[in-house]
Amino acid sequence: MDGKGKITVRCKDLCKTFYAKNRKQDEENEVIRNLNLEVRENEFLVLFGPGQCGKTTILNLMAGLVEPTSGEIEVNGKKVDGPSKDRGMVYQTTALFPWMSVMKNVSFGPRMQGVKKAEWKKRAQYYIDLVGLTGFEDSYPVKLSGGMQQRVGIARAYCNDPDVIFMDEPFGHLDAQTRYLMEEEIEKICSKEKRTVIFVTNNVEEAIYLADRIVVLTDMPTTVKKEYMIEIPRPRDYTSKQFLSLREEITQCVEISGTFEEAGHGDE
Ligand SMILES: Nc1ncnc2c1ncn2[C@@H]1O[C@H](COP(=O)(O)OP(=O)(O)OP(=O)(O)O)[C@@H](O)[C@H]1O
Fold first, then answer.
1. 28 ligand 1 Cβ < 6 A
2. How far is the centre of ligand 1, averaged over its atoms, from the C-alpha of 178 (Å)?
3. What is the pLDDT of residues 203-213, one digit of tens each?
4. Considering only the top CATH level, what class is 1-79+211-268?
5. % of the chain at pLDDT higher than 90
6. pLDDT in tens, 33-51
7. Mutate to test the pocket of ligand 1, among 56, 67, 167, 171 (most ligand atoms within 8 A of CB)
8. Contact, 18 vs 31, CB < 8 A?
9. 203 lines ligand 1 (CB under 6 A)
10. pTM (2 decimals)?
């Protein structure tokens, strides 16, 4: 990244408070406070922060699934005011349609838009091949491993041809081995199919392995704490000196946020 280029996503003074009514009183949960963020075209941006700081809420706001309390979000210069096919989502649990084959799951978006069969089949096959699932077109999700299901979820997001893809801890439920494999896979896919990706993870190694830039978030109410441009050449070596020293620095940056001190006094 050279810091130039078109901005795909812009969050300006973004705030989100959830209000819940309980029997005794109205409760407020201020999750995001004045978050400012710009994400450039084809950038792989990782949101990294303490547990429960509001990472998923930020993605949901950008995806138009949740409304901000104040502030604005723009995608390609257009105000976000609801979900759109220009914004794809890959979830932690795959959220596939269990009654649909891999082909039908991947092609779901184009089919819903009325794209002709020959075209959606071609497009879906391209992404099925890209994620390494050639031969599994007619399989159903239940027959696939967790890693394979995530591949379907990724192919489905790409097949809709979005401008930006949000990935919410997509490998969080996978075993360590599969997770490493998927990190390599997603890197290959992203270098072949350039897209703006905003990726949430709690795993510092995953963040450094994948990111062009890591945005470290504060505790709740969350905002940007610090940003790191990751300029280590790809594919990255988890054991290199540069990787390890960055891991140390970013881990400390998150720990200093006070999560752990507060956790110690949680029951007082
Ligand atoms: N729809 C909602 N209604 C009320 N509160 C919500 C809602 N969605 C999220 N929250 C609250 O927002 C806070 C942040 O949750 P969120 O899931 O965004 O954090 P996170 O950083 O993604 O968590 P994790 O580290 O577990 O992935 C939590 O206190 C949660 O209870």
1. no
2. 26
3. 999 999 999 99
4. alpha beta
5. 84
6. 999 999 999 999 999 998 8
7. 56
8. yes
9. no
10. 0.91
In the chain the first and final C-alpha atoms are separated, in Å, by 46
Nearest CA to ligand 1 atom 23: 52
How many Å is the Cα radius of gyration of the chain?
19
Ligand 1 atom index nearest CA of 202 = 25
- Please give the distance, rounded to the nearest whole angstrom, from the Cα atom of residue 84 to the centre of ligand 1: 22
What stretches of the chain adopt beta strand conformation (E)?
7-21, 26-40, 44-48, 70-75, 78-79, 87-90, 164-168, 196-201, 213-217, 224-229
User: Nearest C-alpha to atom 29 of ligand 1 is from which residue?
Assistant: 52
pLDDT at 226: 96
Does the ipTM exceed 0.90? yes
Nearest to 80, CA basis, from 4, 141, 162: 162
Residues 88 and 75: their CA atoms lie apart, in Å, by 12
How many residues would you count in the chain?
A: 268
Task: Out of 14, 17, 18, give the residue to mutate to test ligand 1, the one with the largest number of ligand atoms within 8 Å of its CB.
Answer: 18
- Distance, CA of 169 to CA of 42 (rounded, Å): 19
DSSP letters for 42-110: T-EEEEE-STTSSHHHHHHHHHTSS--SEEEEEETTEE--S--TTEEEE-SS----TTS-HHHHHTHHH
Segments making up each domain of the chain, as ranges: 1-79+211-268
The answer to whether residue 258 scores a pLDDT higher than 80 is no
Q: Which atom of ligand 1 approaches the CA of 49 most closely?
A: 21
Among candidate residues 30, 82, 38, 25, the one with its CA nearest the CA of residue 198 = 38
Structure tokens at 124: 């879906």
